[in-house]
Amino acid sequence: MYTSSWCAYVLALAALPRLVLAAPLPASVAPPTLSSSRTSTKPKKGAVKLPFLRRRVAGRQNTDEDVLGGTVGLGDSADLFYTVAVTVGDSTTSVNLDTGSSDLWVMSDACKTTQCQRSSAKPYDVTKTFKPTKSASVQLQYGDSVSGTHAYGPVGRDTVTLAALTLTDQTLAAVNDTDNSAVQNGGAGILGLGFPAQSFVQAAAINAEFNSPSGTDTFITQTASYGPVVSRLIMADMIDDPLFAVTLQRNTIDVSGKGEITIGQLPDGIDESNITWVPVRLYDPAEGGMAPPSFAPNEKYPLRWEVPIDAVFLDGQKLPQSTQSGAGLDSSIVSGLIDTGNSLIRGPQDVVNNIYTKVSPAFAANSNTDPTLPCDAGHNLAFQIGGKMFPVDPRDFVSQNKQGDAKTCIANNIVSTDAPSTGALFSWNLGDPFLKSNMVIFYYGNLTHPSVDPPRIGFVSLVPQNADALLDDAVEDAQGAGGTFESKADVAPTASSLILESSSGASSSTASRASSPSQTQTSSPTTTAKPQSTKTDSAPSESSSSSSNAAPPSLRLPQGVWPSLLLVSLSMLSSLCIL
Of the candidates 216, 221, 234, 225, which has an alpha carbon nearest to the alpha carbon of residue 284? Predict the structure, then answer.
């Protein structure tokens, strides 16, 4: 608990960001203060790196090294979805890495649906280490009205290890009914990296354990015990900074790039001055957001990794804004969901059709035909975010239309989606084609008091200056190879490696034992009180009641309060000096 004097400072500070967020979201915001910054003097903590491609690591040299984190490879099935190995209980499974949802679920041995029976992954044995949470279950809905799928199953706890970071009693769903493609191509479920407010599993567990408490106090304060994986790592102070960064490799058209997720710190070699930071959209209850708790009645919370989009450009020309707005919603703010669990770019139907018309002579002549185009056309789709342009690499704009034909391609990496709705205000869903072209840094900020340290997303363009020429080379190579473009699939490796920091401050890596090669699949259980809705390939789409609750994790000051209090104090001292 805080004394009244401290509360006055915090409330005064919290009011400032809310005044800003009440207006349209700013184009860009100041970068967060990072412990892992190259200029920071704060010691590193348990940061963890997960390269999606295997890399060489050095053997451990000293016994006085601090663990910063670990590394593990990523699977990629022809750019359709990206997987990472996690250990649940005593078995290791590959799960889809998904920023569009918040929950961890794996396919259980009780799942007998067609998708589960076709899966090559070993199912999760719920009779071994899974501890059911009373009668809690969830019904997760993924995708939009066209591509929707489901995942149902009981909620419980088990020990979960992600790249050498272990959380005991992690809540998850053991899915026994799903038609989600996350259980195909060696995958066995989904690892959601979103915010607690969107966690159906957390809501179900808290409702069961705390007898469906009213309000949101219990839900928010119990995130440290019942929340999503990365949220719990943050609240347990196991990682340097409350962030993770993602880049995705390209496994089609022109195999290239390096996929990697870095948890707890910025990736090595990143020039922080090149990062464009923008605010994450916050939802109030009237917009479908989570109601604030009694201990912070003026707070607004994020639902998902959603940011404002200034404009959309095609081949240097700004596209007209969509007239497709949700009923009764403010269409002046256009936002986009940044979603690794979505294999496509999804946008308003009128804007998508406009793009098709401009790039495809066939579609321009007949809108009922596929948007085919010359493979080497080299169109440039770009999103203006935070006042800067973030293009989609021309190699990620097109796909092969027919095997054996490397002359005529199809622009099917961009498709239409539903209009904004309450609880899902975004017009665009920027999936893997965008993430193959841009590094994205997801900064959670303060999970209990967002106004103290607001959530942000940082962007760095990775598109080379000669991207058009690289597409031309890929087309030429494909035509010389019988008309077939490069394509490959990577199986998620189960071996992980620690990243260490010695007492001298130097970092090193050491290989650790390989996890069990067995794989599990899962889906999320059904719940009576659910968080908020979403409309992505792998994000729950049903809205939830705001009655989900949680008890406070601890009585310490929220993350980031001390620096903020210092600024307020300095401001007050300055005023006294003026007087």
Answer: 216
| Mean pLDDT, residues 436-457 | 97
Tokens 């053997």 belong to which residue? 59
DSSP 546: T
C-alpha to C-alpha distance for 496 and 513, rounded to whole angstroms: 7
DSSP 356-377: HHHH-HHHHH-TTS--EEETT-
d(CA 191, CA 75): 13
Tokens coding 21: 């967020």
Radius of gyration of the chain measured on its C-alpha atoms = 23
Phi/psi at 430 (nearest 5 deg)? -90, 100
Alpha-carbon dihedral 464, 256, 96, 303, rounded to 10 degrees: 0
* Architecture in CATH for domain 75-238: Beta Barrel (2.40)
The DSSP letter of residue 354 is: H
Residue 431 CA to residue 330 CA, distance in Å, equals 24
For the chain, which residues make up each domain, given as ranges? Answer: 75-238, 272-500
Residue 407 is encoded by which pair of tokens? 């002359």
Which positions ≥6 away from 476 have C-beta within 8 Å? none
Q: Looking up tokens 């790592």, which residue turns up?
A: 233
Q: Which residue has the tokens 């992505």?
A: 536
Tell me the Ramachandran region of residue 36: left when phi exceeds 0, alpha when psi lies from -120 to 50, beta otherwise. Answer: alpha
SS (H, E, C) 483-521: CCCEECEECCCCEEEEEEECCCCCEEEEEEEECCCCCCE
Q: Is 512 exposed, middle or buried (0-12, 13-18, 19+ CB in 10 A)?
A: middle
Nearest to 17 by CA among 297, 242, 282: 282
Do the beta carbons of residue 107 and residue 130 sit within 8 Å?
Answer: no
Catalytic residue among 144, 177, 254, 339: 339
- Characterize 323-354 residue by residue with b for buried, 16 or more Cβ atoms within 10 angstroms of its Cβ, and e for exposed: ebbeeeeeeeebbbbbbbbbbbbbbbeebbeb
Catalytic residue among 76, 79, 98, 217: 98
- What is the rounded distance in angstroms from the CA atom of residue 239 to the CA atom of residue 164? 12
pLDDT recorded at residue 197 = 97
DSSP helix/strand/coil, 237: coil
pLDDT above 70 coverage of the chain, percent: 73
For 53, 73, 259, 311, 498, the CA distances from 512, given in Å and listed in that order, are 16, 13, 21, 46, 7
Q: How far apart are CA 10 and CA 315, in angstroms?
A: 47
- Write out pLDDT tens, residues 377-410: 999 999 999 999 999 999 999 999 999 999 999 9
Could you tell me the pTM of the whole model?
0.81
HEC letters along 412-479: CCEEECCCCECCECCCEEECHHHHCCEEEEEECCCCCCCCCCCCEEEEEECCCCCHHHHHHHHHHHHH
- Class level of CATH domain 272-500: mainly beta
- The Cα–Cα gap between 335 and 427 comes to 6
| Domain 272-500 in the same topology as domain 75-238 | yes
Sorted by sequence, the CB contacts under 8 Å of residue 81 that are 6+ apart come out as 96, 181, 182, 185, 187, 341, 343, 432, 537
Instruction: For residue 477, indicate whether it is catalytic.
Output: no
- Compute CA 545 distance to the chain's CA centroid, rounded to the nearest angstrom: 23
